[in-house]
Specification:
The strands form five sheets. The protein has a six-stranded mixed sheet, with helices on both faces. The protein folds into three domains: 206 residues, Rossmann fold, CATH 3.40.50.620; 75 residues, Chorismate Mutase Domain, subunit A (Up-down Bundle); 114 residues, no CATH class. It is elongated. By secondary structure, it is of the alpha+beta class. Helix 2 packs across helix 8. It is 38% helix and 20% strand.
Length: 448
């Protein structure tokens, strides 16, 4: 395959309207060739920013950052260094830690409609698929890396994924490019390096087209994964309670075990959580789905708790500590009210809700349950305890203490965005406002 401006232009054709082109630029031969190719397109040049991620792991990383800056300036593109903590956490491999830190840095900086370009090539795809195979991955893992994928609000693109590393090096030599050789790439303690240095040369002697063959296998797996995933997602959405953000367990149990696994995977993926291991999936299916109603087994995954409440399977974000005795005075209700580790409240116009004239009658205060609170509701007789209302509405126990209670003067006007007091409810035709509670844990999910 010939690498030239026509080639890279064809790869980027769908993205001409994008405002920002972000290039992951390590200074190695692959990313240098990608950046050099991009700068051959005048219409893209002023949109490009080359990003060097400084992991803080190599003594010469500062010098590499300077090299990348000099090369970027010589090519006439913007440059930025992102410093990250690449140290491995307990149970995390150094390779995984560096990768996670790198991807998180890019996630934090991308804005809507940005395009992020990585320089992975066909030989990288070969290594990725084989490593996934050795780790016992399923179809998703054996699908390897996609050429294009959604990435936060933007798009991740790998335009060189069907290009061999030999073609990339020939291009670099032809254009007399200067690149960095990372000495850690020779360290065979790392799985990928061991595979690259010790195993693949032998395999490629016997099967010279191995990279193309495995890329084709990855493509077949990706197609099969796409079909099965689409079916499972359709089934998942039929069982998904959008308001409670949970799966209905009785409906899930009507499927066979294999489909249950697919549906749970799709649910977790829909919430932006990493794919679970077989061990985690088995724990969910065996320990949670079949548990007694009064039991509360918990499975930990990716920093979250997976647990059940009544007929719902929930993904529960870590609860940040907060002070339930605090009181907030909402003096300017035209602005959102932060609730200190408990999200925020907002006000908007509505056709029904709290009557505007009553909303403006007294000071608005936000408190939390202390016990014994009651509220009268429109179209219902009597006064109702918050405890009973939470039980009726199926509000999960881990949320109840955090539900903000809105007072006007010394009277309860509303319970978050769940209920409005009969005493403050607007009649038909009256200007009204509605409250919206953006929970702190909502921001931890990344929903399609």
């Amino acid at each position: 395959m010939k690498l030239n401006s026509s080639f890279i232009a064809s790869q980027l054709l769908p993205f001409y309207a994008k405002s920002n082109i972000i290039v992951g630029y390590s200074g190695g031969v692959d990313s240098h060739v990608l950046l050099h190719l991009l700068t051959s397109l005048p219409e893209f040049k002023n949109k490009i920013t080359a990003i060097y991620v400084h992991h803080g792991l190599q003594t010469c990383a500062d010098a590499w950052a300077v090299h990348c800056q000099n090369c970027s300036e010589a090519l006439g593109v913007k440059f930025k260094v992102l410093k990250v903590n690449g140290q491995a956490a307990p149970g995390e491999s150094p390779e995984e830690a560096a990768r996670n830190a790198r991807y998180q840095a890019f996630k934090d900086m991308l804005t809507a409609d940005d395009v992020l370009l990585f320089a992975q090539h066909r030989n990288d795809q070969l290594e990725t698929v084989l490593l996934q195979l050795f780790r016992g991955a399923g179809l998703k893992g054996l699908s390897g890396m996609p050429v294009k994928a959604s990435f936060v609000a933007g798009t991740l693109l790998r335009p060189l994924l069907d290009v061999s590393q030999e073609d990339i090096k020939q291009y670099a030599l032809q254009h007399q490019l200067q690149w960095i050789e990372d000495p850690s790439n020779q360290d065979t303690q790392f799985d990928r390096n061991f595979l690259r240095q010790e195993i693949l040369p032998l395999l490629e002697q016997r099967w010279p087209s191995l990279d193309k063959t495995v890329a084709r296998v990855a493509s077949h797996c990706a197609e099969a994964q796409m079909v099965l995933s689409a079916n499972a997602k359709e089934q998942m959405l039929m069982l998904y309670d959008q308001q409670q953000r949970c799966l209905l367990i009785t409906g899930l149990l009507q499927h066979d075990v294999l489909m249950q696994q697919w549906i749970v995977r799709e649910w977790l993926g829909y919430l932006g959580v990493r794919m679970p291991s077989v061990k985690v999936l088995q724990a969910i299916l065996q320990n949670i789905l079949t548990a007694r109603q009064e039991a509360n087994p918990i499975v930990r995954h990716d920093g979250f708790d997976i647990q059940r409440y009544r007929d719902g399977l929930y993904l529960v974000a870590p609860q940040v500590p907060f002070d339930a005795s605090q009181v907030f005075l909402w003096s300017d209700t035209s602005q959102p009210l932060p609730l200190n580790n408990n999200g925020r409240l907002l006000v908007s116009e509505a056709q029904q809700g709290i009557a505007v004239d009553l909303w403006q009658q007294g000071a608005v205060q936000i408190k939390y349950r202390q016990g014994g609170e009651k509220i009268a509701l429109p179209n219902r007789t009597g006064r109702h305890s918050l405890k009973k209302l939470f039980q009726e509405a199926g509000i999960a126990p881990w949320l109840r203490a955090r539900v903000p209670v809105i007072y006007i003067g010394d009277k309860i006007a509303a319970i978050a965005d769940f209920w409005v007091s009969k005493d403050f409810y607007g009649t038909v035709g009256e200007p009204c406002i509605k409250l919206t509670w953006h929970k702190a844990h909502d921001e931890k999910f990344n929903i399609d």
